[in-house]
Each structure stands twice: as C-alpha cells, then as structure tokens.
Amino acid sequence: MSVEWTALPAGFIIATLATLVGFGGGILWMPFLILVARLDPTQAVVTSLVIQVGGMGSGSLAVIKAKKADLRPSLTLSACAFLGVPIGVWLSRVVSADSLVFLLGVLSLTMALVFVYTQDDFENSVVSQVSLRQTAPYLWLSTLFAILTGLLSMGVGDFLVPILRNRLRMTMESAMSACLIVMAMNAALAAILHLMIGETFATNLVLWAIPGVLLGGQIGPRLAGRIPDQTLKEIFIYGLSLAGIHMMFNMPGSH
C-alpha cells in the first residue's frame, strides 16, 4: 500500500511544530522520509529541502506579515549562512550518510541539553529586536550551521534559536521568527544546488506534503503568539531531544 498520502498529515504536523518552536523541519522530515517513505538518504535530503521551502516560506510570510520578525538580523544571518550551504552540498557527496545522520542526532541532543541547563536570569529584560552590532559576534555560527542545511537539510534554527535566546536575550517568539526567514532562504539555496548537481526529489511525496506544510506554516506562528515564552522553550527542548535520540539510535543502517 502506498504511503505517499501520509506526507499530507505529516507535512501539516511537522510544519506546525517547526514554525511554532523554530527548529528546522529537516530534523523531523529525515526520519519520516527514510523510515516511513523508504527513500535513500541522498534523495531524502533533497526532498526534505524542497518541502521545507514551502513550509518555511509559508511561515516566513506569516511572521513578516504579523511584523514579528526583525528583518535586519534575519537577512544578515541569511547572507552569512549562504556561505556555508555550498560546503554542505559538496560534503554530501563525499561523506557516509550513516555517519552524518548519527552526527546530526548527537548535535541535536547536545544543543537541547545546553539549552535546558542554561538558566534564564533575564526574564524581565528580554527584547524583540537586536542591532546588527549585537548580532555580529555570532554571524560566523550561521555560516557554520548552514553547512548542515546543505549536508542533511537540517535547519540552522536548531542552533541559532538557543543563541538568539540566551546570548542576545531575544524572546522565543522573536528568535523563532528570525530563524524561520533564515531557514527558508537556506532551504531554497540548498535545494537549487542539489538539483544543479543532478540529484532528484520524490515528486509524489512533495505534491502530497506541500498543502500540509503551507497550512502548518501559517498555523505555527499564530500559535506561537498565544503560548507562554517558557512553554515554547520547553517544547523546543523536548522536540529537539526526542528527534536527536531517534536519529542516534534508529537511523544508521535502517535503510
């Protein structure tokens, strides 16, 4: 029996969660595409990126329309991330897929643990906007994390949200909104580069998934404005932890 139709509800759920708490949809799409849809890792990466363009793009339009995103740091982080995406695409051609997926799980779990053990001693001084000068010391991290977008379709939001939250003292909603824009632009560039070197995506899965991610991408940002900051942080931590553990212990050798 075909499982392609399951991409529709999966797309809605994944896009809602990803745009709600700011982690990249790739970390949820990769287990689905490899374990459920049975795609090989290379095709799963490209398929995930194409789907994310729809979901993250939809979410980006929602936060921009609602004026939740600070465009200056968002576009600056995106420009820096563009330097890392081509490196990731190149690495995807030379590094073992199983090794990369396991590394993805380790990194995700590590970031979740760092986030959960970081104490919020500034709850009354969080901000919704930051200057480019404040953002500058962390721009290189956007380039570094973007390598994972080109490599595994993993969104930089998994790593940038904790930095924007804990280092720049942005609210969770503002940090997630900024990262949505960065991830949408990264996914588009990475998808184009992968397609240019001759890789393909699962067309039928994408056609089923796109309606779901377009809808979920609109709902997630709207829910974010109604959920307390601390609750969003906890959802981010739990989601990243579960996805990381799943990657580490279930992905290698499963295809």
Automatic annotation (TrEMBL):
Its main location: membrane. The chain crosses the membrane at residues 12-37, 44-63, 75-92, 99-118, 138-163, 175-195, 201-219, 231-249. It is found in: Cell membrane; Membrane. It holds the Pfam family TauE. Keywords: Cell membrane, Membrane, Transmembrane, Transmembrane helix. One of its GO terms (cellular component) is plasma membrane. It is a multi-pass membrane protein. InterPro entries: TM_pro_TauE-like, TSUP/Inactive_protease-like. Belongs to the 4-toluene sulfonate uptake permease (TSUP) (TC 2.A.102) family. This is Probable membrane transporter protein.
